[in-house]
Fold this sequence. Notes:
Strand order of the largest sheet: 2-1-3-4-5
Strand content: 5-15%
Bound molecules: FE2/S2 (inorganic) cluster
Order of helices and strands: HHHHHEHHEEEHE
Largest sheet: 5 strands, mixed
Radius of gyration: 23 Å
Amino acid sequence: MFARQAAQRLLEIRQIFRQSPQASRSFSTALNYHIDTPDNNPNIRWEFNEANKEKAKEILSHYPSNYKQSAVIPLLDLAQQQHGGWLTVSAMNEVARIIEVAPIRVYEVATFYSMFNRSKVGKYHLLVCGTTPCMIRGSREIEEALLKHLGVKRNEVTKDGLFSVGEMECMGCCVNAPMITVADYSNGSEGYTYNYYEDVTPKRVVEIVEMLRKGEKPTPGTQNPNRIKAGPEGGNKTLLSEPPAPRCRDLEAC
Ligand code: FES
């Protein structure tokens, strides 16, 4: 019964995608589905620019010539940098050509790792952690605040091309949940950075967005002024004094 419902749901989703590729962006990026669009189809020629051709050569030189496929992740990363933060099907095909594998081998990697974006993202791609500790601490409200403030759906890009909002699973900051990551693609092919903003509130994420819009760089890390890095809120609670010396240093004599 469950399998039949799941198959039915999949058919419905495919139908939505066929009717509107844009609509697919409101689903999780984990839903890996490609529909040809005017700006993303295999007929569009894509190649590394001259500077990146040199970088690609350098990357390949790190691997034995019969293991070129091991360079798939750094080459996809380079392609994504060149293409403004996302990977077209043609870019993935070009990587497959360079490392001499079937394109599906590259698609498998690009669809598995959530740092690879397969649809357009904003210059600042805001990734809300959706895993349990962050969700319990209010990540849904964080996402709602961002979507409402920016007037977009999940994975849609704002009209000015500056922002998009996505979801990522646990980014290892659960102790300071909830948190978001800002993937900053504003430097173009110079490379991008990921900054973590932790202990965020709906109000704080909107402030962060507005600072980024003005070209400011909000300080990453915890946004709770009562916490130092990942320490307890309000200051240390343990190890407040010099620990006592061991009762006896000579274990044989004790
Ligand atoms: S659950 Fe959000 S960082 Fe771990």
